[in-house]
Design a protein that fits this description.
- This protein has one domain: Peroxisomal Thiolase, Chain A, domain 1.
- Strand 6 and strand 7 form a beta hairpin.
- Strands 3-2-1-7-6-4-5 form a 7-stranded mixed sheet, with helices on both faces.
- It is 34% helix and 25% strand.
- The chain is globular, with a radius of gyration of 17 Å.
- Helix 1 runs parallel beside helix 2 and helix 2 runs parallel beside helix 5.
- It is α/β, with parallel strands linked by helices and 199 residues long.
């Protein structure tokens, strides 16, 4: 008999709003810039993590969405045995463009603080470092969230029995717009089976 895995919590960040399991947790001002919105969400979540302010916008998007999800679960010290599987369509394009400007400038000063964020997997690393996750992680580039591939990959990780949880989903940041839809998956029973209909 096939073993089922379950969605423990879902967090969605879109149109300057944050939802947990479909319920509005935080309503942002649609006229605010993405930077202002993410800053106000950081304060709303009552976080104390100065490294947040050094992150690029892509990393901030995933970081805040995951922090909100963990708070709703009640994780004060999340488990270390967590793996991360994500999809993204624009990679770190916005940061890449900013970094390119520092190379093209007359004084040619490539910014190290921007260069470090010119890979999208750094966003996953920020979440893992913050929470002490030691599981494997990967990010797939695709024009859309490939739910079938996500399910297959997460199932493979959980069936091994090495990881208790997998944090997975979609996040992106392009042209001043952030979005994320993330799920925490495990064997623990909940009212939502981890399948194509529930993603």
């Amino acid at each position: 008999m096939k073993e089922h895995y379950y969605i423990q919590k879902e967090a969605v960040l879109m149109s300057r709003n944050l939802y947990i399991n479909g319920n509005l947790l935080y309503k942002g001002d649609p006229d605010n810039s993405s930077s202002d919105f993410l800053g106000s969400l950081y304060r709303f979540l009552n976080l104390s993590y100065p490294k947040f302010f050094k992150m690029d916008m892509l990393s901030k998007t995933l970081f805040l969405c995951s922090e909100a999800l963990f708070q709703q679960i009640g994780w004060t010290t999340p488990e270390a045995n967590v793996s991360l599987v994500f999809f993204n369509s624009h990679s770190s394009l916005e940061t890449d463009k900013q970094f390119q400007k520092t190379i093209k400038s007359d004084d040619y000063y490539p910014s190290p603080s921007l260069f470090i964020y010119t890979l999208p997997n750094i966003a996953l690393a920020e979440v893992a470092i913050r929470n002490g996750f030691i599981g494997e992680n990967c990010i797939f580039m695709a024009p859309y969230f490939d739910a079938e591939r996500c399910i297959d990959y997460v199932n493979l990780l959980l069936i091994k029995g090495i990881y208790r949880y997998v944090l997975c989903g979609w996040f992106d940041y392009v042209e001043g717009e952030e979005e994320a839809k993330i799920y925490l998956i495990s064997k623990d029973r909940s009212n939502k089976i981890f399948n194509i209909n529930n993603l």
